[in-house]
């Protein structure tokens, strides 16, 4: 399993075996809370099977989903070395299995410099993504947030034909809105000729200048 994940691809079979021996597996049932903001992160966690969601709960009790994780995805890369508590709740969406890799095991694996560099690159990419999300959240309307999201994605992919990396429901959670409002704004952008959507996962930017101008309206 680990060999098929990019982060671990530079490790030898012996190094991977030592990681597995020094790690612990966690089994969880659907809707089980795995971690809360009261829990201190002491491991890098890898989803072996199932699906998880990362959520915050607002004072009203409403759940704001920050991210969803599937098989092969990880969380806690930076927190494990910061000695801090989780910033959000980690919840199983379905029956799941997680591999928790303690800090001391990661430190052993860092002797492999290729693994270390890949690990640091993974953290850097997450920080950049977080910075983009913060920038998007600072915008005043949902339409501006969607425009900023599409422009960032276009720059990243160097293309005006984009495969959306998440569902509209997940995007809505990320920008603090609802799926219905996000879908309506996508429809308005399409009606205005700024984008077209040949299918629900593909966006073609038809008028880049008008999309950019939305940020300044």
What's the gist of this structure?
By secondary structure, the protein is of the alpha+beta class.
Q: Compute the number of strand runs.
A: 11
* Uncertain parts: none
Average pLDDT, rounded to a whole number, is 89
N- and C-termini, Cα separation: 49 Å
> What portion of residues is helical?
40-55%
Q: How does the helix and strand content classify structurally?
A: alpha+beta
Quaternary state of the chains:
single chain
- Overall, the morphology is globular
Read across the widest sheet, the strand sequence of neighbours is 1-8-3-6
Structure description:
With 217 residues, the chain is of the alpha+beta class. Helix content is 41%, strand content 24%. It has helices at residues 13-22, 79-82, 103-109, 113-137, 142-157, 168-175, 179-191, 208-213, and strands at 24-28, 33-35, 43-49, 52-57, 63-69, 74-75, 89-92, 96-102, 161-163, 195-199, 202-205. It has a four-stranded antiparallel beta sheet with strand order 1-8-3-6. A four-stranded antiparallel beta sheet has the order 2-7-4-5. A three-stranded antiparallel beta sheet has the order 9-11-10. α1 (13-22) packs antiparallel against α3. The longest helix has 25 residues, at 113-137.
């Amino acid at each position: 399993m680990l060999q098929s994940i990019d982060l671990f691809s530079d490790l030898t079979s012996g190094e991977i075996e030592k990681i597995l021996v020094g790690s612990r597996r966690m089994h969880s049932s659907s809707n089980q809370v795995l971690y809360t903001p009261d829990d201190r992160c002491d491991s890098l966690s890898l989803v072996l099977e199932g699906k998880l969601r990362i959520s915050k709960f607002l004072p009203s009790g409403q759940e704001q989903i920050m991210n969803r994780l599937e098989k092969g995805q990880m969380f806690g890369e930076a927190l494990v070395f910061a000695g801090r508590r989780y910033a959000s709740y980690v919840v199983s969406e379905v029956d799941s299995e997680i591999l928790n890799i303690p800090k001391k095991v990661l430190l052993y694996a860092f002797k492999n410099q290729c693994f270390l560099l890949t690990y640091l690159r993974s953290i850097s990419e997450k920080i950049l993504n977080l910075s983009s999300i913060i920038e998007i959240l600072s915008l005043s309307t949902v339409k501006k947030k969607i425009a900023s999201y599409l422009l960032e994605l276009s720059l990243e992919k160097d293309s005006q034909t984009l495969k959306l990396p998440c569902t509209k429901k997940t995007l809505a959670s990320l920008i603090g809105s609802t799926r219905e409002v996000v879908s309506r704004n996508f429809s308005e952008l399409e009606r205005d000729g700024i984008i077209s959507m040949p299918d629900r996962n593909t966006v073609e930017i038809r008028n880049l200048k008008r999309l950019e101008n939305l940020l300044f309206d």
